[in-house]
Amino acid sequence: MSSRTVAKRGFNLDYIMWLFMRLSALALYALGLTGLVAALIMGARTQTDISTLLRWTFFPNPSHVISSDIVNLEPWINSFWQIIQMLVVFFGVTHGINGLRMVVEDFIGSSWWRVLWRGFIFFLWLFILLVAIYVVLAS
């Protein structure tokens, strides 16, 4: 078993991704809190159960609950909530894929396998982001 070399000081991919993991987690907390507070202000505490409230916290999509008991969907139908959804998807997917990248690089030595896995993970990230953005914009 070979040991991993210590990364160089300064701005490199490992440091930037380490910093991104911390900031993206904070961004996900902030976006979730924004959705939760907005839902409670708009009357979700009296109109929905807890599972619907938590789902709407991260993906406030009025077309998903047309057959529900929610009376007023108008505050949710605007581009602000689509931007919030896309930010949640971007930070969540990128955070998770970066975690996958770190795990894979811990177990794969420096060889052509690492390059192959990095390419696969990059295309997986790109595919998931494109599909998620399509779902957000098409619904």
Describe this protein's structure.
By secondary structure, this protein is an all-alpha fold. The protein has one domain (13-138). Helix content is 71%, strand content 0%. The protein is built from five helices and no strands. α1 (13-41) packs antiparallel against α4. It is elongated, with a radius of gyration of 19 Å. The model has no long low-confidence stretch (mean pLDDT 81). One of its GO terms (cellular component) is membrane. The chain crosses the membrane at residues 83-103, 115-137. It is found in: Membrane. This is Succinate dehydrogenase. InterPro entries: SQR/QFR_C/D, SuccDH_FuR_B_TM-su.
Quote the average pLDDT: 81
Radius of gyration: 19 Å
> What fraction of the residues are assigned to beta strands by DSSP?
under 5%
Shape: elongated
The level of helicity is over 70%
Biggest β-sheet: count, sense, barrel? none
Tally of DSSP β-strands: 0
SSE order, one letter for each helix or strand: HHHHH
**Which structural category do the helix and sheet elements fall into?**
mainly alpha
What separation lies between the terminal Cα atoms? 50 Å
